[in-house]
Automatic annotation (TrEMBL):
Source species taxonomy: Eukaryota, Metazoa, Chordata, Craniata, Vertebrata
Protein name: Phosphodiesterase
Disordered: annotated span: 786-812
Cofactor(s) the protein requires to work: a divalent metal cation
Chain intervals with Low complexity compositional bias: 789-812
Domain of life, source organism: Eukaryota
Keywords: cGMP, Hydrolase, Metal-binding
Span of domain PDEase: 438-771
UniProt cross-references to Gene3D superfamilies, sorted A to Z: 3'5'-cyclic nucleotide phosphodiesterase, catalytic domain, 3.30.450.40
PROSITE patterns registered for this protein in UniProt: PDEASE_I_1, PDEASE_I_2
Length: 812
């Protein structure tokens, strides 16, 4: 039995459910194609309306594969538009992309005139031949604005229709379907189908098909859009990250800073070239610049103005009169400016400091709002970073100011040419300036003018400066460098040595205790500890020279007040240095003098030697902060203990000479021993010096009372001056004794210092007891008087009965 074609048709028409499930199972587009003996692409969809679900499946599979392979948006949308145009019999379909430039939205053709026979390459619109129209022109613009799809059955009846594109392309639009593609609330694109070929207009069924197919299309456009946004965000992140990196690396100069930042992020800029123009912001306005403005002769300067005030995004440079100069390629590579994005660089003070311009987006498309945002973030960041360089400029200015201040200080502190003649009497001897004399000649003078080792007993622990003038002390100081043999050994120019010592003496302020005399005494004690105390054996000559120098410098420019006072009075020094405030200042001051070539006694050392000297001076001067003394006590004691385990002195010295840290600890403790050495001097000296120390403390106490309005501690309170002996005993017991006891245990040669302190302790104790006895006597006298008065009062009360006039007398 044969089945006729009509029967099958009749059966299938009558059993559509069966037909659908049957073809779903059995037929693929390939099968249909092979049945029809035509290529798969030529399968006539119109004739296979009933099996289009099968074919649809194939199409969607195809599209999704395309999307998976790469997000080639144009290719996928092209396929969909091709299919739509066949399905709904549209003459042509187009894709318009939505974007914003200069804050204004616009639509640009991306796929134009797609129909069922089109090839992709013919329909993709290259960036330079885009048709761009704002949203207020045409139905497509209207769709983007309303975000609603539209079926226009007769364009002549639609008020939004514009013949602008028709005229441009010599075409006549009669009817159309258009729909926006959305990503959330944002329009991404608009798709339009134009002119129904087999009817007067698109039917509702056409519209349904159109929208159904575009669902896949919109998915793809969304992916494309998101991936673009993601790319922008990534670029933005990288841009800022890298710029930050470069910006903070470079603080010196804004131009270098910007260049470095932009060069690093150039890959993310997504443009051919960029340029940055900077205004000269370093120049401050002078009064003669402002006068003409104040006089009304000139308008005030308001910075460069971009067309819309902020951003300038030019799509077609060739058509813009700004680029009239571009009549041919701008360089030998044939490069021309196609589109431009230009933004002002604004600093935190809202001043325009420059303009950044980016040329030709890499994909040839114009810069859009995402580029604008991205570049704005970058330029904003660069603008803010200008503040860094501003701060740097300010710092530079401060630095310059400091230099000037230092220059002034140096002028006053530095030994003058007339002053040096007080010691290095070249004018008297040779009628010449020191610089015109040979070293031999200078030595000849100094041999006569310096006091020599014995005149002032500089080798003695009991040395006293009482019989010396300040100038004598300068000559004694110079003498010591000769005594330890470093002048020749380290080629110290003698004029420099004299000027240095003289300047150090001038660097001390004329205050009650921490004056040049104290500075000298510390240097002298260091010299004596090293020589007489035999501590020199652990140190090289260079180290000896550094230590004596540190002694002389250790309190230079002292203000007569202690570290705590600097903090309480908010002295800038306290802000500059966190701890050991004054000590750090003395150190800086000392190094500042040494930085002057005419004072640098270390000028002929090599770099390594110089570094070593500075290292030792650093440690030595900071070590004079008594607050640090307690930290080094046990370490020093252990070294002394260790020294006692050595029977042979030579072995101990050999061991110590290589022990850098132990040597530094001993040196630090030597500085303390020197600084406190007044306590070891003969009683006549100690009693006087102790008074001057106390006097300086009392002066600080007065300042605390008057300036800070605070009650000073007893040590600084002149009303408690009588307690001085007690305070001295406490100071000897808790601070000083340990130092000299340990040093005399370390080196018996130092015993005189320990003896000295014991003797002074005895004196102070006697004074203390004397005072306490007197106090007790006075208290007893007061008590006796009170008792007598009480007795008298009792007697008179019993006689007179009335009060003696005391107002507090109670009657009740
Ligand atoms: Zn001191």
């Amino acid at each position: 039995m044969s089945v006729k074609k009509e029967d099958v048709e009749k059966f299938l028409d009558g059993n559509q459910d069966f037909a659908r499930s049957y073809f779903d199972k059995k037929l693929k587009p390939g099968a249909v194609a092979s049945i029809m003996r035509i290529p798969e692409s030529k399968v006539d969809v119109d004739s296979f309306k009933d099996i289009c679900s099968v074919e649809e499946g194939g199409l969607f599979y195809d599209l999704i594969t395309d999307m998976q392979e790469n997000v080639n948006m144009e290719k996928v949308i092209f396929k969909i538009l091709k299919r739509i145009s066949a399905l709904i019999h549209a003459d042509r379909c187009s894709l318009f992309m939505y974007r914003q430039r200069n804050g204004i939205a616009e639509l640009a053709t991306r796929l134009f005139n797609v129909n069922e026979n089109s090839e992709l390459d013919d329909c993709v619109v290259p960036p330079d031949s885009e048709i761009v129209f704002p949203l207020d022109i045409g139905i497509v613009g209207h769709v983007a604005q309303t975000k609603k799809n539209i079926n226009v059955k007769d364009v002549t009846q639609n008020s939004h229709f514009s013949s602008f594109v028709d005229e441009l392309t010599e075409y006549t639009t009669r009817n159309l379907l258009a729909t926006p593609i959305m990503n959330g609330k944002d329009v991404v694109a608009v798709i339009m189908a134009v002119n129904k070929t087999n009817g007067p207009y698109f039917t509702d069924e056409d519209e349904d098909l159109f929208l159904k197919y575009l669902k896949v299309g919109s998915l793809n456009l969304k992916i494309f859009h998101l991936s673009y946004l993601h790319n922008c965000e990534t670029r933005k992140g990288q841009l800022l990250l890298w710029s930050a990196n470069k910006v903070f690396e470079e603080l010196t100069d804004i131009e270098r800073q910007f260049h470095k930042a932009l060069y690093t992020v150039r890959a993310y800029l997504n443009c051919d070239r960029y340029s940055v123009g900077l205004l000269d912001m370093t120049k401050e306005k002078e009064f003669f610049d402002i006068w003409p403005v104040l006089m009304g002769e000139q308008p005030p300067y308001s910075g460069p103005v971009t067309p819309d005030g902020r951003i300038c995004n030019i799509m077609n440079a060739a058509a813009d009169e700004t680029f009239n100069f571009q009549t041919e390629a701008l360089d030998s590579s044939g490069w021309t400016i196609k589109n431009v994005l230009s933004l002002p660089i604004v600093n935190k003070k809202e001043e325009i400091v420059g303009v950044a311009t980016f040329y030709n987006r890499k994909d040839g498309k114009p810069f859009d709002d995402h580029d604008e945002q991205l570049m704005e973030a970058l330029t904003q960041f660069l603008g803010w970073s200008v503040l860094n360089t501003d701060t740097y400029d300010k710092m530079n200015k401060l630095e310059n100011r400091k230099d000037i201040a230092q220059d002034m200080v140096l002028y006053h502190v530095k030994c003058r040419d007339d002053e040096i003649q007080n010691i290095l009497k070249t004018r008297e001897y040779f009628d010449r300036e020191p610089r015109d004399c040979e070293e031999e000649e200078l030595l000849e003078i100094l041999k006569k003018e310096l006091p020599g080792p014995n005149k002032f007993e500089i080798y003695a622990f009991h040395f006293s400066d009482f019989d010396c003038t300040e100038l004598d002390l300068v000559t004694c100081g110079i003498q010591m460098y000769y005594e330890v043999g470093v002048v020749k050994k380290f080629q110290v120019p003698q004029e420099v040595l004299v000027r240095f010592m003289y300047s150090v003496s001038k660097g001390y302020r004329k205050i009650t205790y921490h004056n040049w005399r104290h500075g000298f005494n510390v240097g002298q004690t260091m010299f004596t500890l090293l020589t007489t105390g035999k501590l020199k054996r652990y140190y090289t000559d260079l180290e000896v020279m550094a230590m004596i120098t540190a002694g002389f410098l250790h309190d230079i420019d002292h203000r007569g007040t202690n570290n705590l006072y600097q903090v309480k009075s908010q002295n800038p020094l306290a802000k500059l240095h966190g701890s050991s405030i004054l000590e750090r200042h003395h150190l800086e001051f000392g190094k500042f003098l040494l930085a002057d070539e005419s004072l640098n006694i270390f000028q002929n050392l090599n770099r390594r030697q110089m570094e070593h000297v500075i290292h030792l001076i650093d440690i030595a001067i900071i070590a004079t902060d008594l607050a640090l003394y307690f930290k080094k006590r046990t370490m020093f004691q252990k070294i002394v203990d260790l020294s006692e385990t050595y029977e042979e002195q030579k072995k101990w010295v050999d061991f110590m000479s290589l022990e850098t840290t132990r040597k530094e600890i001993v040196m630090a403790m030597m500085m303390t021993a020197c600084d406190l050495s007044a306590i070891t001097k003969p009683w006549e000296v100690q009693s006087k010096v102790a008074l001057s120390v106390a006097a300086e403390f009392w002066e600080q106490g007065d300042l605390e009372r008057t300036v800070l309005e605070q009650q000073p501690i007893p040590m600084m309170d002149r009303n408690k001056a009588a307690e001085l002996p007690k305070l001295q005993c406490g100071f000897i017991d808790f601070v000083c004794t340990f130092v000299y006891k340990e040093f005399s245990r370390f080196h018996p040669e130092i015993q005189p210092m320990y003896d000295g302190i014991l003797n002074n302790r005895m004196h102070w104790k006697a004074r203390q007891e004397e005072y306490e006895a007197k106090l007790k006597e006075m208290e007893e006298a007061v008590k006796a008087r009170q008792e007598a008065a009480a007795k008298n009062a009792a007697n008179s009360n019993s006689t007179s009965g009335s009060g003696s006039g005391s107002k507090t007398c109670s009657i009740c």
